[in-house]
Amino acid sequence: TYVIAEPCVDLKDKACIEECPVDCIYEGGRMLYIHPDECVDCGACEPVCPVEAIYYEDDVPEQWGAYTKANADFFEELGSPGGASKVGLTEADPEPIKSMAPVEH
Ligand code: F3S
Ligand code: F3S
Description:
- There is one protein chain.
- The protein is an alpha+beta fold and 105 residues long.
- The chain contains 3 helices and 4 strands, in the order βαβββαα.
- It has a two-stranded antiparallel ribbon. A two-stranded antiparallel ribbon has the order 2-3.
- A hairpin with a 4-residue loop joins β2 and β3 (32-34).
- Bound molecules: FE3-S4 cluster (2 copies).
- Residues 2, 19-20, 22, 24-25, 34, 39-45 line the site of one FE3-S4 cluster.
């Protein structure tokens, strides 16, 4: 799977959403999250993020390692909806993300 990391927090550019062929990039209150089971590893989202927030799971920079878990944890209650557009904005951000201090861009 691919993982969205810290540069997305409080920015949410959303260019990535347009590229995903399986609509597996979901919106939380603070950032967006890639569904680890729904992502087909096509990689189309990665180059279009203007702040380089998206990484293949093996390439997530060490300081953002916790985001791999955060992307998965976002779906604890949502499960596998099979499409982000019908879900829309949710406030399901995992606690460590929800409680982060505001990030300035
Ligand atoms: Fe976030 Fe980049 Fe997508 S800022 S919403 S990961 S284009
Ligand atoms: Fe979609 Fe990016 Fe995965 S475009 S299929 S989330 S690699």
